[in-house]
Specification:
alpha+beta, elongated, 580 residues, disordered N terminus, 47% helix
Length: 580
């Protein structure tokens, strides 16, 4: 942030390396203290706004080892009396180390300063101050340090008073908007709070100023510092402070003055406001988390068939803003690349709420973030298209119960639009590429049928991913024979059928047998077209004839028995559904 005025005003401040606020006086203010009434600026007028935070006395020639940034260095010239040639480079060396100014007494040890030294100070904007001979260093040290401490105490007192006022607003039930209004009134500028996605959470001031700050935050988030001269904020001052709580970045609070009325001391007030805003945001998130869990628990009960009769479910859902008294379908979205605990554990009907906590704790931070983003994306999109829909995040999936359109299908209709928008929104806010698969149930007409619809959607998402890979989108009615196989309630019965039909080819232990099973699969896919199978598998025709003979000795005369071919095809389909 740039400041063009040299008017003393309240003390300036800077962000130190520790992140704490440090206060000081400008060089111009130091020249105004009573003990320096006779002091004279002989060079470096452009540096009068440099900040003095501490004072030091030059007692040794090698002073560079002992100086610190923002110091006012006092000297009689005694350490330099025998080395006048070092004066030529002294200004440059002190300036490079961030000193505020050099104040010197002439006459006793040094008669004058070299013209090169004065010219260099003017060029660098490094103030050179000629001290009167009748003032003692101890008087300067005492008064300047006292003024710095007094001004610091006054600024801290004002900042704490503002902090108490903002906290009182929150304690009386106020939210972000009331906090922003108070800060904007105190600073007489526009103020806005933005979340991590640059959405305006609260703002006070002209709309064009709020939009300018929103655009500025979007630019600065991508690596441009606040002093980066964003065109949207040109011609004025701006301050930006992160809103952080519990190690999480919740956004930014910005203040903007097109007339340049912001002062750096206002940063302390804005930081207090950011702290209070973080409290408000975390409180809102905690309330939202409790409400979300309550909604998710009730939706889980509905999908498990333990929420009561239809009238009770409809009445209870009305309190959440859900409309389930209409034709609906269940949509299940599940992150790809996640290890699931198993069929029974992966279904809402079979996992109680308390069983989800260990699973959630077992996932890493990235997995939790991806699940949260998936839930946020689906919630935003569903709310946009169907305000009466129910949507909740479970441990391993996001479930939405949405209104069913008569013409809705996977490739057209509202659900198709939701899928596209949710995918785009989910990918937009993740730094690591992730995908999710989606399953859609048939349309049902009552809450009592929702458990069956949920089972259909779960099967659709798992079978769809198994058949088409990550990012699959499957409707239960489009699963074909896999839909029929998924309806078998006893998986062990399917496994027994595979073992009885395929025999040795059912296992994965021997590579030769797995290779033979692949040959059988391609033969059946090509309707026993030997030439086409040989081409696909890159086998010689005679080699394939030999393999067919070996397969028939193991499985039976499937080239002549259509019923056997059907059994073999079904067994291979069951194997392809393994793990579902």
């Amino acid at each position: 942030m740039s400041y063009t005025t040299a008017d003393p005003g309240p003390p300036a401040l800077r962000l130190a390396s520790t992140g704490t606020l440090t206060y000081g006086l400008s060089v111009g203010e130091v020249l105004g203290v009573s003990t320096l009434n006779g002091a004279r600026l002989i060079a470096g007028r452009a540096g009068l706004n440099r900040i003095v935070q501490r004072l030091n006395v030059m007692e040794v020639p090698d002073i560079l080892s002992w100086v610190k940034p923002n110091e006012l260095l006092l000297t009689t010239g005694y350490p330099l009396r025998n080395t006048p040639q070092s004066l030529d480079n002294l200004v440059a060396d002190l300036d490079e180390r961030g000193l505020a100014a050099l104040a010197i007494k002439l006459g006793r040890y040094l008669e004058s300063l070299p013209p090169e030294m004065i010219e260099q100070a003017d060029r660098r904007g490094f103030p050179l101050i000629l001290l009167p001979n009748d003032v003692g260093f101890d008087d300067i040290l005492n008064q300047v340090l006292t003024d710095i401490l007094n001004r610091q105490a006054a600024v801290l007192a004002r900042t704490e008073e503002v902090h108490r006022a903002l906290v009182q607003i929150v304690l009386c039930g106020g939210g972000l908007q009331e906090v922003v209004n108070e800060v904007a009134s105190l600073l007489d500028v526009a103020v806005v709070v933005l979340d991590a996605e640059q959405r305006v959470l609260a703002g006070a001031g002209p709309e064009e100023h709020i939009q300018a700050m929103r655009a500025f935050n979007a630019v600065s988030t991508h690596g441009v510092p606040p002093q980066g001269g964003n065109p949207a904020l040109s011609g004025g001052d701006h301050l930006m402070v992160p809103v952080v709580a519990g190690g999480f970045d919740h956004g930014r609070i910005l203040a903007y003055s097109p007339d340049g009325t912001l002062r750096e001391t206002d940063l302390g007030i804005l930081e207090r406001a950011a702290t209070v805003a973080a409290l408000v945001v975390t409180k809102q998130q905690a309330v939202a988390a409790v409400e979300s869990k309550y909604r998710a628990d009730f939706l889980r009960d509905i999908l498990a068939g333990r929420a009561g009769d239809d009238d009770r479910v409809v009445a209870h859902c009305a309190g959440f803003g859900w409309d389930l008294d209409r034709p609906v379908m269940v949509v299940v979205a599940e992150l790809d690349g996640r290890t699931r605990p198993g069929d029974a554990e992966g279904r809402a009907a079979a996992r109680p709420a308390e069983a989800e906590a260990p699973a959630a704790r077992g996932r890493g931070a990235d997995e939790r973030l991806a699940q949260e983003r998936l839930a946020a994306a689906w919630t935003a999109v569903v709310r946009r298209h169907d305000r009466g829909a129910a949507v909740a995040s479970f441990a391993h999936e996001v479930v939405a119960v949405v209104g069913a359109d008569a013409d809705d299908a996977l490739s057209t209709g509202p659900v198709h639009t939701m899928l596209k928008e949710a995918s785009a929104l989910f990918a937009e806010h993740l730094s690591v590429r992730r995908t999710f698969s989606t399953g859609i149930s048939r349309t049902v007409g009552s809450p009592a049928a929702l458990p069956e619809a949920y089972e259909q959607a779960v099967k659709a998402v798992r079978v769809g991913r198994q058949l088409h890979g990550s990012g699959a989108r499957a409707h239960f009615d489009q699963l074909g024979v896999y839909r029929l196989l998924s309806l078998v309630s006893d998986p062990e019965e399917l496994h027994a059928f595979v073992r009885e039909t395929l025999g040795e080819l059912a296992g994965d232990d021997e590579a030769e047998l797995v290779d033979l099973r692949r040959t059988l699969q391609v033969l059946l896919e090509t309707n026993l077209n030997v030439a086409e199978t040989a081409r696909r598998l890159h086998f010689h025709y005679n080699t394939l004839r030999y393999r067919i003979g070996k397969l028939e000795r193991m499985l039976g005369p499937f080239t002549e028995d259509a019923h056997l071919r059907l059994n073999l095809t079904l067994a291979l389909h069951v194997l392809r559904m393994r793990g579902i």
